Amino acid sequence: MPLELLLQVTPEMAVNNHLIKEQVAKLIRVAVGDIKHISILKRSIDARQKAIKINLKVAIYFQEDDFIEEKIQLPDYKNVANSPEVIVVGAGPAGLFAALQLIEMGIKPIVVERGKDVRGRRRDLKAINLDHIVNEDSNYCFGEGGAGTYSDGKLYTRSKKRGDVTRILELLVGFGASDDILIEAHPHIGTNKLPKIIQDIREKIIEMGGLVLFETRLTDILINNNEVQGIITQSGDTLLSNKIILATGHSARDIFELLDRKKVFIEAKPFALGVRAEHPQSLIDSIQYSCDYRGEHLPPAPYSIVKQVGGRGMYSFCMCPGGVIAPCATSPGEVVTNGWSPSKRDQATANSGIVIELKLEDFAPYSKFGALAGLEFQKSIEQKAWHLAGETQKVPAQRMVDFTKNQVSSEIPKTSYVPGTTSVEMGAVFPGFLSQILREGFSEFGKSMKGYLTNEAILHAPESRTSSPVRIPRDSISLEHLQIKGLYPCGEGAGYAGGIISAAIDGEKCAIKVFESLNL
Protein backbone atom coordinates (compact mmCIF):
# COMPACT_ATOMS: atom_id res chain seq x y z
CA MET A 1 0.00 0.00 0.00
CA PRO A 2 1.31 3.48 -0.82
CA LEU A 3 1.94 6.07 1.85
CA GLU A 4 -0.26 9.16 1.39
CA LEU A 5 1.13 12.55 2.37
CA LEU A 6 0.01 16.19 2.33
CA LEU A 7 2.69 18.77 1.58
CA GLN A 8 3.19 22.33 0.44
CA VAL A 9 5.71 23.23 -2.25
CA THR A 10 6.61 26.28 -4.29
CA PRO A 11 5.06 26.71 -7.75
CA GLU A 12 8.46 25.94 -9.29
CA MET A 13 8.74 22.68 -7.35
CA ALA A 14 5.18 21.65 -8.20
CA VAL A 15 6.03 21.19 -11.88
CA ASN A 16 9.27 19.25 -11.23
CA ASN A 17 8.78 15.61 -10.22
CA HIS A 18 12.39 15.22 -9.06
CA LEU A 19 12.10 18.23 -6.73
CA ILE A 20 8.83 16.86 -5.33
CA LYS A 21 10.54 13.52 -4.67
CA GLU A 22 13.42 15.27 -2.88
CA GLN A 23 10.98 17.23 -0.71
CA VAL A 24 9.02 14.09 0.17
CA ALA A 25 12.21 12.18 1.03
CA LYS A 26 13.26 15.01 3.33
CA LEU A 27 9.87 15.11 5.07
CA ILE A 28 9.62 11.37 5.74
CA ARG A 29 13.38 11.02 6.34
CA VAL A 30 14.28 8.43 3.74
CA ALA A 31 16.79 8.39 0.92
CA VAL A 32 15.54 9.69 -2.42
CA GLY A 33 16.47 6.36 -3.97
CA ASP A 34 14.11 4.54 -1.61
CA ILE A 35 11.14 6.21 -3.29
CA LYS A 36 10.26 4.37 -6.49
CA HIS A 37 7.30 6.44 -7.58
CA ILE A 38 5.12 9.38 -6.51
CA SER A 39 1.58 9.96 -7.80
CA ILE A 40 -0.16 13.30 -7.34
CA LEU A 41 -3.68 12.69 -6.06
CA LYS A 42 -4.88 16.28 -5.49
CA ARG A 43 -3.50 19.74 -6.28
CA SER A 44 -4.62 23.23 -5.27
CA ILE A 45 -3.17 26.72 -4.88
CA ASP A 46 -2.78 28.48 -1.53
CA ALA A 47 -2.51 32.21 -2.27
CA ARG A 48 -3.41 33.47 1.20
CA GLN A 49 0.16 34.56 1.94
CA LYS A 50 2.54 36.62 -0.15
CA ALA A 51 4.67 33.53 -0.73
CA ILE A 52 2.28 31.39 -2.80
CA LYS A 53 2.32 27.66 -2.20
CA ILE A 54 0.91 24.65 -4.01
CA ASN A 55 -0.90 22.10 -1.84
CA LEU A 56 -0.30 18.52 -2.94
CA LYS A 57 -1.70 15.22 -1.81
CA VAL A 58 0.63 12.49 -3.00
CA ALA A 59 0.88 8.70 -2.89
CA ILE A 60 4.41 7.39 -2.28
CA TYR A 61 5.49 3.95 -3.50
CA PHE A 62 8.57 2.16 -2.12
CA GLN A 63 8.31 -0.98 -4.28
CA GLU A 64 8.27 -0.95 -8.08
CA ASP A 65 5.64 -3.67 -8.18
CA ASP A 66 3.26 -1.71 -5.95
CA PHE A 67 2.69 0.98 -8.56
CA ILE A 68 0.45 0.09 -11.47
CA GLU A 69 -0.54 2.94 -13.78
CA GLU A 70 -4.21 2.38 -14.50
CA LYS A 71 -5.72 3.90 -17.61
CA ILE A 72 -9.30 5.07 -17.17
CA GLN A 73 -11.59 2.66 -18.97
CA LEU A 74 -15.10 3.32 -20.21
CA PRO A 75 -17.87 1.05 -18.95
CA ASP A 76 -18.58 -2.12 -20.91
CA TYR A 77 -21.38 -0.66 -22.99
CA LYS A 78 -23.64 -3.23 -24.69
CA ASN A 79 -25.39 -2.81 -28.03
CA VAL A 80 -28.94 -1.62 -27.42
CA ALA A 81 -30.19 -1.36 -31.01
CA ASN A 82 -33.07 -3.78 -30.31
CA SER A 83 -33.73 -2.79 -26.69
CA PRO A 84 -36.65 -0.84 -25.15
CA GLU A 85 -36.57 2.83 -26.17
CA VAL A 86 -36.55 5.94 -24.00
CA ILE A 87 -36.71 9.48 -25.41
CA VAL A 88 -34.12 11.93 -24.09
CA VAL A 89 -34.90 15.54 -24.98
CA GLY A 90 -31.73 17.63 -25.08
CA ALA A 91 -28.09 16.78 -25.79
CA GLY A 92 -26.49 18.85 -23.04
CA PRO A 93 -24.58 17.19 -20.20
CA ALA A 94 -27.79 15.98 -18.51
CA GLY A 95 -29.14 14.43 -21.70
CA LEU A 96 -25.86 12.92 -22.90
CA PHE A 97 -24.98 11.33 -19.56
CA ALA A 98 -28.55 10.09 -19.20
CA ALA A 99 -28.16 8.44 -22.61
CA LEU A 100 -24.86 6.82 -21.64
CA GLN A 101 -26.35 5.53 -18.40
CA LEU A 102 -29.35 4.10 -20.26
CA ILE A 103 -27.03 2.23 -22.64
CA GLU A 104 -25.00 0.91 -19.72
CA MET A 105 -28.23 -0.56 -18.33
CA GLY A 106 -29.34 -2.02 -21.66
CA ILE A 107 -31.88 0.62 -22.77
CA LYS A 108 -31.90 2.37 -26.14
CA PRO A 109 -31.85 6.19 -25.90
CA ILE A 110 -33.38 8.30 -28.63
CA VAL A 111 -31.74 11.70 -28.10
CA VAL A 112 -33.52 14.61 -29.79
CA GLU A 113 -31.63 17.89 -29.96
CA ARG A 114 -33.05 21.11 -31.40
CA GLY A 115 -29.61 22.42 -32.36
CA LYS A 116 -26.78 21.23 -34.56
CA ASP A 117 -23.76 19.07 -33.86
CA VAL A 118 -20.63 20.74 -32.50
CA ARG A 119 -19.20 21.41 -35.96
CA GLY A 120 -22.42 22.85 -37.33
CA ARG A 121 -22.82 25.12 -34.32
CA ARG A 122 -19.58 26.95 -35.14
CA ARG A 123 -21.08 28.67 -38.18
CA ASP A 124 -23.97 29.97 -36.11
CA LEU A 125 -21.64 31.23 -33.37
CA LYS A 126 -19.69 33.11 -36.03
CA ALA A 127 -22.94 34.61 -37.32
CA ILE A 128 -23.98 35.95 -33.91
CA ASN A 129 -20.50 37.35 -33.22
CA LEU A 130 -19.83 38.97 -36.58
CA ASP A 131 -23.22 39.48 -38.22
CA HIS A 132 -25.44 39.84 -35.13
CA ILE A 133 -27.70 37.05 -36.41
CA VAL A 134 -29.28 34.82 -33.75
CA ASN A 135 -30.31 31.29 -34.76
CA GLU A 136 -33.00 30.31 -32.25
CA ASP A 137 -32.04 26.63 -32.44
CA SER A 138 -28.26 26.85 -32.75
CA ASN A 139 -26.28 29.24 -30.56
CA TYR A 140 -24.14 29.27 -27.41
CA CYS A 141 -26.98 27.67 -25.42
CA PHE A 142 -28.57 25.25 -27.90
CA GLY A 143 -26.84 22.47 -29.80
CA GLU A 144 -24.74 19.40 -29.09
CA GLY A 145 -23.27 19.56 -25.61
CA GLY A 146 -25.57 22.37 -24.53
CA ALA A 147 -24.40 25.64 -23.00
CA GLY A 148 -21.19 24.10 -21.63
CA THR A 149 -19.67 23.09 -24.99
CA TYR A 150 -18.70 26.58 -26.07
CA SER A 151 -18.73 28.26 -22.69
CA ASP A 152 -15.71 27.01 -20.83
CA GLY A 153 -16.07 23.44 -19.57
CA LYS A 154 -15.59 24.34 -15.90
CA LEU A 155 -16.11 21.20 -13.84
CA TYR A 156 -16.01 22.49 -10.29
CA THR A 157 -19.14 21.78 -8.29
CA ARG A 158 -20.21 22.15 -4.67
CA SER A 159 -22.95 19.57 -5.26
CA LYS A 160 -20.96 16.58 -4.05
CA LYS A 161 -23.90 15.28 -2.01
CA ARG A 162 -25.94 14.88 -5.19
CA GLY A 163 -23.93 12.00 -6.60
CA ASP A 164 -20.61 10.57 -7.70
CA VAL A 165 -18.55 13.47 -9.01
CA THR A 166 -15.50 11.25 -9.54
CA ARG A 167 -17.45 8.93 -11.82
CA ILE A 168 -18.43 11.83 -14.11
CA LEU A 169 -14.84 13.10 -14.20
CA GLU A 170 -13.54 9.62 -15.01
CA LEU A 171 -16.06 9.25 -17.83
CA LEU A 172 -14.88 12.57 -19.27
CA VAL A 173 -11.27 11.33 -19.07
CA GLY A 174 -12.35 8.10 -20.75
CA PHE A 175 -13.76 10.18 -23.60
CA GLY A 176 -10.55 12.18 -24.01
CA ALA A 177 -10.26 14.82 -21.29
CA SER A 178 -6.89 15.28 -19.60
CA ASP A 179 -6.54 13.21 -16.42
CA ASP A 180 -5.51 16.45 -14.70
CA ILE A 181 -9.21 17.03 -14.07
CA LEU A 182 -9.06 14.17 -11.55
CA ILE A 183 -6.55 15.97 -9.33
CA GLU A 184 -7.17 19.71 -9.73
CA ALA A 185 -9.21 21.45 -7.05
CA HIS A 186 -11.03 23.43 -9.76
CA PRO A 187 -10.93 21.19 -12.86
CA HIS A 188 -11.46 22.75 -16.27
CA ILE A 189 -11.42 21.36 -19.80
CA GLY A 190 -11.58 24.46 -21.98
CA THR A 191 -13.82 25.54 -24.84
CA ASN A 192 -11.26 24.49 -27.43
CA LYS A 193 -11.13 20.87 -26.21
CA LEU A 194 -14.64 20.12 -25.01
CA PRO A 195 -16.29 19.87 -28.47
CA LYS A 196 -14.18 16.83 -29.42
CA ILE A 197 -15.09 15.09 -26.15
CA ILE A 198 -18.79 15.79 -26.73
CA GLN A 199 -18.51 14.47 -30.28
CA ASP A 200 -16.88 11.26 -29.02
CA ILE A 201 -19.72 10.75 -26.51
CA ARG A 202 -22.25 11.11 -29.31
CA GLU A 203 -20.36 8.66 -31.52
CA LYS A 204 -20.31 6.12 -28.67
CA ILE A 205 -24.08 6.47 -28.21
CA ILE A 206 -24.61 5.80 -31.91
CA GLU A 207 -22.05 2.98 -32.01
CA MET A 208 -23.93 1.16 -29.27
CA GLY A 209 -27.26 1.39 -31.06
CA GLY A 210 -28.68 4.63 -29.68
CA LEU A 211 -30.06 7.40 -31.88
CA VAL A 212 -29.05 11.07 -31.84
CA LEU A 213 -31.30 13.33 -33.90
CA PHE A 214 -30.03 16.88 -34.48
CA GLU A 215 -32.12 19.84 -35.66
CA THR A 216 -35.11 18.07 -34.11
CA ARG A 217 -37.03 20.45 -31.90
CA LEU A 218 -39.77 19.18 -29.61
CA THR A 219 -43.01 21.06 -30.25
CA ASP A 220 -45.48 18.95 -28.28
CA ILE A 221 -45.57 16.19 -25.67
CA LEU A 222 -48.26 13.58 -26.13
CA ILE A 223 -50.07 13.02 -22.83
CA ASN A 224 -53.03 10.72 -22.18
CA ASN A 225 -54.58 10.28 -18.73
CA ASN A 226 -51.64 12.12 -17.19
CA GLU A 227 -49.12 9.71 -18.74
CA VAL A 228 -46.67 10.53 -21.52
CA GLN A 229 -47.04 8.70 -24.83
CA GLY A 230 -44.33 10.39 -26.89
CA ILE A 231 -43.41 13.66 -28.58
CA ILE A 232 -44.06 15.57 -31.79
CA THR A 233 -41.19 17.41 -33.51
CA GLN A 234 -41.19 20.59 -35.58
CA SER A 235 -41.23 18.52 -38.78
CA GLY A 236 -44.46 16.85 -37.69
CA ASP A 237 -42.84 13.52 -36.87
CA THR A 238 -44.14 11.53 -33.90
CA LEU A 239 -41.77 9.58 -31.64
CA LEU A 240 -43.45 7.19 -29.24
CA SER A 241 -42.30 6.21 -25.76
CA ASN A 242 -43.94 6.19 -22.34
CA LYS A 243 -40.66 7.33 -20.75
CA ILE A 244 -39.27 10.79 -21.52
CA ILE A 245 -36.25 12.40 -19.87
CA LEU A 246 -36.70 16.16 -20.32
CA ALA A 247 -33.22 17.73 -20.25
CA THR A 248 -33.71 20.89 -22.28
CA GLY A 249 -31.56 23.39 -20.35
CA HIS A 250 -32.22 26.67 -18.57
CA SER A 251 -32.90 28.68 -21.74
CA ALA A 252 -35.55 26.49 -23.41
CA ARG A 253 -38.31 29.02 -22.90
CA ASP A 254 -40.56 27.41 -25.50
CA ILE A 255 -40.59 24.21 -23.42
CA PHE A 256 -41.67 26.08 -20.30
CA GLU A 257 -44.37 27.83 -22.33
CA LEU A 258 -45.51 24.52 -23.83
CA LEU A 259 -45.85 22.92 -20.41
CA ASP A 260 -47.73 25.98 -19.13
CA ARG A 261 -50.17 25.87 -22.08
CA LYS A 262 -50.78 22.16 -21.49
CA LYS A 263 -51.42 22.91 -17.81
CA VAL A 264 -48.53 20.70 -16.75
CA PHE A 265 -47.54 21.84 -13.28
CA ILE A 266 -44.46 24.13 -13.23
CA GLU A 267 -43.50 26.91 -10.82
CA ALA A 268 -41.51 30.13 -10.83
CA LYS A 269 -38.05 29.78 -9.32
CA PRO A 270 -35.70 32.49 -7.99
CA PHE A 271 -32.46 32.95 -9.89
CA ALA A 272 -29.65 35.50 -9.97
CA LEU A 273 -29.03 38.34 -12.40
CA GLY A 274 -26.45 41.09 -12.92
CA VAL A 275 -23.53 42.02 -15.16
CA ARG A 276 -20.37 40.44 -16.52
CA ALA A 277 -17.27 42.33 -15.37
CA GLU A 278 -14.03 42.22 -17.36
CA HIS A 279 -10.61 43.15 -15.91
CA PRO A 280 -7.12 42.84 -17.35
CA GLN A 281 -5.91 39.40 -16.25
CA SER A 282 -2.65 40.96 -15.10
CA LEU A 283 -4.62 43.13 -12.64
CA ILE A 284 -6.45 40.12 -11.17
CA ASP A 285 -3.10 38.29 -10.94
CA SER A 286 -1.55 41.18 -9.02
CA ILE A 287 -4.50 41.30 -6.61
CA GLN A 288 -4.78 37.57 -6.00
CA TYR A 289 -1.09 36.66 -6.04
CA SER A 290 0.21 39.91 -4.48
CA CYS A 291 2.85 40.20 -7.16
CA ASP A 292 3.78 42.44 -10.07
CA TYR A 293 4.32 39.48 -12.39
CA ARG A 294 2.61 36.10 -12.14
CA GLY A 295 5.45 33.99 -13.56
CA GLU A 296 5.27 30.92 -15.74
CA HIS A 297 4.50 28.35 -13.03
CA LEU A 298 1.25 29.84 -11.78
CA PRO A 299 -2.01 29.70 -13.73
CA PRO A 300 -3.98 32.90 -14.40
CA ALA A 301 -5.60 33.80 -11.11
CA PRO A 302 -9.32 33.30 -10.55
CA TYR A 303 -11.35 35.02 -7.87
CA SER A 304 -14.47 34.22 -5.88
CA ILE A 305 -16.23 36.83 -3.81
CA VAL A 306 -19.55 36.97 -1.93
CA LYS A 307 -21.14 39.88 -0.09
CA GLN A 308 -24.45 40.56 1.59
CA VAL A 309 -25.77 43.86 0.22
CA GLY A 310 -29.18 45.25 1.01
CA GLY A 311 -30.24 41.92 2.45
CA ARG A 312 -29.31 39.99 -0.69
CA GLY A 313 -26.37 37.94 -1.78
CA MET A 314 -24.16 39.50 -4.47
CA TYR A 315 -21.47 37.19 -5.76
CA SER A 316 -19.13 36.25 -8.58
CA PHE A 317 -20.46 33.60 -10.93
CA CYS A 318 -18.78 31.48 -13.63
CA MET A 319 -15.45 33.29 -13.27
CA CYS A 320 -13.23 32.87 -16.36
CA PRO A 321 -9.49 33.55 -15.90
CA GLY A 322 -7.75 34.29 -19.18
CA GLY A 323 -11.10 34.20 -20.94
CA VAL A 324 -13.52 36.18 -23.07
CA ILE A 325 -17.14 37.33 -22.95
CA ALA A 326 -19.57 35.77 -25.43
CA PRO A 327 -23.02 36.72 -26.81
CA CYS A 328 -25.52 34.13 -25.59
CA ALA A 329 -28.88 35.32 -26.85
CA THR A 330 -31.25 32.53 -27.90
CA SER A 331 -33.76 34.71 -29.77
CA PRO A 332 -33.58 37.86 -31.90
CA GLY A 333 -34.36 41.02 -29.98
CA GLU A 334 -32.40 40.24 -26.82
CA VAL A 335 -28.86 40.59 -25.49
CA VAL A 336 -27.31 38.07 -23.08
CA THR A 337 -23.71 37.68 -21.91
CA ASN A 338 -21.67 34.75 -20.64
CA GLY A 339 -17.97 33.95 -20.38
CA TRP A 340 -15.57 31.17 -21.36
CA SER A 341 -11.88 30.29 -21.34
CA PRO A 342 -9.72 28.13 -23.59
CA SER A 343 -7.86 25.24 -21.96
CA LYS A 344 -4.66 27.30 -21.49
CA ARG A 345 -6.59 30.30 -20.17
CA ASP A 346 -4.16 32.45 -22.08
CA GLN A 347 -6.32 35.44 -23.06
CA ALA A 348 -5.35 38.90 -21.75
CA THR A 349 -8.58 39.45 -19.87
CA ALA A 350 -10.47 37.89 -16.95
CA ASN A 351 -14.23 38.04 -16.65
CA SER A 352 -16.90 36.99 -14.20
CA GLY A 353 -20.60 37.28 -13.81
CA ILE A 354 -21.40 39.53 -10.84
CA VAL A 355 -24.96 38.72 -9.91
CA ILE A 356 -27.58 39.38 -7.26
CA GLU A 357 -30.02 36.91 -5.76
CA LEU A 358 -33.58 37.59 -6.84
CA LYS A 359 -36.72 36.82 -4.84
CA LEU A 360 -40.09 35.65 -6.06
CA GLU A 361 -41.62 38.96 -4.99
CA ASP A 362 -39.34 40.74 -7.49
CA PHE A 363 -41.45 39.18 -10.24
CA ALA A 364 -44.70 40.74 -8.97
CA PRO A 365 -45.06 43.10 -11.98
CA TYR A 366 -45.28 39.96 -14.14
CA SER A 367 -47.61 38.00 -11.86
CA LYS A 368 -50.21 37.67 -14.63
CA PHE A 369 -47.83 35.19 -16.28
CA GLY A 370 -48.10 32.85 -13.30
CA ALA A 371 -45.28 30.30 -13.23
CA LEU A 372 -43.58 32.18 -16.08
CA ALA A 373 -43.29 35.45 -14.11
CA GLY A 374 -39.55 35.07 -13.52
CA LEU A 375 -39.00 34.16 -17.16
CA GLU A 376 -40.83 37.31 -18.28
CA PHE A 377 -38.82 39.42 -15.82
CA GLN A 378 -35.65 37.93 -17.32
CA LYS A 379 -36.87 38.56 -20.88
CA SER A 380 -37.72 42.18 -20.14
CA ILE A 381 -34.18 43.02 -19.07
CA GLU A 382 -32.58 41.22 -22.02
CA GLN A 383 -34.90 43.01 -24.46
CA LYS A 384 -34.27 46.37 -22.83
CA ALA A 385 -30.51 45.82 -23.18
CA TRP A 386 -31.00 45.05 -26.87
CA HIS A 387 -32.87 48.31 -27.44
CA LEU A 388 -30.32 50.35 -25.45
CA ALA A 389 -27.45 48.85 -27.46
CA GLY A 390 -28.91 49.86 -30.81
CA GLU A 391 -30.96 46.73 -31.55
CA THR A 392 -27.90 44.66 -32.41
CA GLN A 393 -25.83 42.12 -30.48
CA LYS A 394 -23.67 44.96 -29.18
CA VAL A 395 -23.87 45.03 -25.42
CA PRO A 396 -24.57 47.92 -23.01
CA ALA A 397 -21.27 48.68 -21.26
CA GLN A 398 -19.89 51.01 -18.61
CA ARG A 399 -16.67 51.45 -16.69
CA MET A 400 -17.03 50.10 -13.17
CA VAL A 401 -16.23 53.28 -11.20
CA ASP A 402 -18.40 55.33 -13.55
CA PHE A 403 -21.27 52.97 -12.79
CA THR A 404 -20.88 53.42 -9.04
CA LYS A 405 -21.01 57.22 -9.63
CA ASN A 406 -24.04 57.15 -11.93
CA GLN A 407 -22.15 58.68 -14.84
CA VAL A 408 -21.99 57.52 -18.44
CA SER A 409 -18.49 56.48 -19.53
CA SER A 410 -17.13 58.89 -22.12
CA GLU A 411 -15.62 56.00 -24.05
CA ILE A 412 -15.41 52.23 -23.73
CA PRO A 413 -12.13 50.54 -24.68
CA LYS A 414 -12.24 47.45 -26.88
CA THR A 415 -13.18 44.43 -24.80
CA SER A 416 -13.16 40.70 -25.52
CA TYR A 417 -16.85 40.84 -26.45
CA VAL A 418 -16.60 40.51 -30.24
CA PRO A 419 -19.94 42.04 -31.35
CA GLY A 420 -18.90 45.31 -29.65
CA THR A 421 -20.20 47.61 -26.93
CA THR A 422 -22.37 50.70 -26.54
CA SER A 423 -21.71 53.14 -23.70
CA VAL A 424 -24.83 53.15 -21.51
CA GLU A 425 -25.61 54.16 -17.94
CA MET A 426 -26.22 50.67 -16.58
CA GLY A 427 -28.99 51.86 -14.33
CA ALA A 428 -31.16 52.10 -17.45
CA VAL A 429 -30.91 48.33 -17.94
CA PHE A 430 -32.00 47.17 -14.48
CA PRO A 431 -34.79 47.97 -12.04
CA GLY A 432 -33.73 50.62 -9.57
CA PHE A 433 -33.26 48.29 -6.61
CA LEU A 434 -30.88 46.05 -8.59
CA SER A 435 -28.80 48.98 -9.82
CA GLN A 436 -28.47 50.31 -6.28
CA ILE A 437 -27.38 46.94 -4.89
CA LEU A 438 -24.82 46.54 -7.68
CA ARG A 439 -23.36 50.00 -7.01
CA GLU A 440 -23.05 49.36 -3.29
CA GLY A 441 -21.77 45.86 -3.89
CA PHE A 442 -18.93 46.92 -6.18
CA SER A 443 -17.80 49.38 -3.52
CA GLU A 444 -17.77 46.51 -1.01
CA PHE A 445 -15.91 44.28 -3.47
CA GLY A 446 -13.28 46.99 -3.79
CA LYS A 447 -12.70 46.96 -0.03
CA SER A 448 -12.12 43.19 -0.01
CA MET A 449 -10.01 43.05 -3.19
CA LYS A 450 -7.84 46.14 -3.28
CA GLY A 451 -7.67 47.32 -6.87
CA TYR A 452 -10.80 45.48 -8.03
CA LEU A 453 -12.92 48.65 -8.12
CA THR A 454 -11.35 50.42 -11.08
CA ASN A 455 -12.30 52.08 -14.33
CA GLU A 456 -10.06 49.56 -16.06
CA ALA A 457 -12.91 47.12 -15.42
CA ILE A 458 -15.73 47.17 -17.96
CA LEU A 459 -19.24 46.02 -17.07
CA HIS A 460 -21.30 44.25 -19.75
CA ALA A 461 -25.04 43.76 -19.27
CA PRO A 462 -26.89 41.62 -18.66
CA GLU A 463 -25.66 38.36 -17.12
CA SER A 464 -29.11 36.81 -16.90
CA ARG A 465 -28.94 33.06 -17.62
CA THR A 466 -27.37 31.94 -14.35
CA SER A 467 -30.01 29.27 -13.78
CA SER A 468 -33.53 28.38 -14.81
CA PRO A 469 -36.30 30.86 -13.88
CA VAL A 470 -38.68 27.89 -13.74
CA ARG A 471 -38.74 24.62 -11.80
CA ILE A 472 -40.52 21.54 -13.15
CA PRO A 473 -41.43 19.79 -9.88
CA ARG A 474 -40.75 16.07 -9.52
CA ASP A 475 -41.13 13.40 -6.89
CA SER A 476 -38.04 13.19 -4.69
CA ILE A 477 -37.97 9.38 -4.84
CA SER A 478 -39.11 8.36 -8.33
CA LEU A 479 -37.89 11.62 -9.98
CA GLU A 480 -41.05 11.56 -12.11
CA HIS A 481 -43.03 14.74 -12.58
CA LEU A 482 -45.50 15.23 -9.74
CA GLN A 483 -48.44 15.17 -12.15
CA ILE A 484 -47.36 13.38 -15.35
CA LYS A 485 -46.32 9.74 -15.18
CA GLY A 486 -43.30 8.80 -17.29
CA LEU A 487 -41.99 12.39 -17.53
CA TYR A 488 -38.60 12.89 -15.86
CA PRO A 489 -37.66 16.60 -15.57
CA CYS A 490 -33.87 16.67 -15.50
CA GLY A 491 -30.85 18.95 -15.16
CA GLU A 492 -30.58 22.73 -15.18
CA GLY A 493 -33.74 23.39 -17.17
CA ALA A 494 -35.86 21.53 -14.63
CA GLY A 495 -34.23 23.42 -11.76
CA TYR A 496 -32.26 20.48 -10.34
CA ALA A 497 -28.68 21.22 -11.37
CA GLY A 498 -26.22 24.03 -11.94
CA GLY A 499 -23.25 23.35 -14.20
CA ILE A 500 -21.80 20.48 -16.21
CA ILE A 501 -21.08 18.06 -13.36
CA SER A 502 -24.32 18.40 -11.42
CA ALA A 503 -26.32 18.24 -14.66
CA ALA A 504 -24.49 15.06 -15.72
CA ILE A 505 -25.09 13.51 -12.29
CA ASP A 506 -28.79 14.38 -12.51
CA GLY A 507 -28.98 12.84 -15.98
CA GLU A 508 -27.57 9.59 -14.66
CA LYS A 509 -29.95 9.60 -11.68
CA CYS A 510 -32.98 10.06 -13.92
CA ALA A 511 -31.80 7.29 -16.24
CA ILE A 512 -31.45 4.90 -13.29
CA LYS A 513 -34.99 5.74 -12.12
CA VAL A 514 -36.31 5.09 -15.64
CA PHE A 515 -34.57 1.69 -15.62
CA GLU A 516 -36.08 0.84 -12.24
CA SER A 517 -39.56 1.82 -13.42
CA LEU A 518 -39.31 -0.45 -16.47
CA ASN A 519 -38.80 -3.56 -14.28
CA LEU A 520 -36.45 -5.08 -16.85
Distance between the first and last residues' Cα: 40 Å
What's the rounded overall pLDDT mean? 95
Low-confidence segments, ≥5 residues, pLDDT <50? none
Give the strand order, joined by hyphens, for the main sheet: 13-14-17-12-20-18-19
The helical percent reads 25-40%
Counted beta strands = 22
> Can you tell me the overall shape?
globular
The fraction of residues assigned to DSSP E strands is: 15-25%
Broad structural category: alpha+beta
Major sheet: 7 strands, mixed
Helical region count?
Answer: 12
> What does the radius of gyration come to?
24 Å
Features:
single chain; 520 residues; alpha+beta; seven-stranded mixed sheet; five-stranded parallel sheet; 27% helix
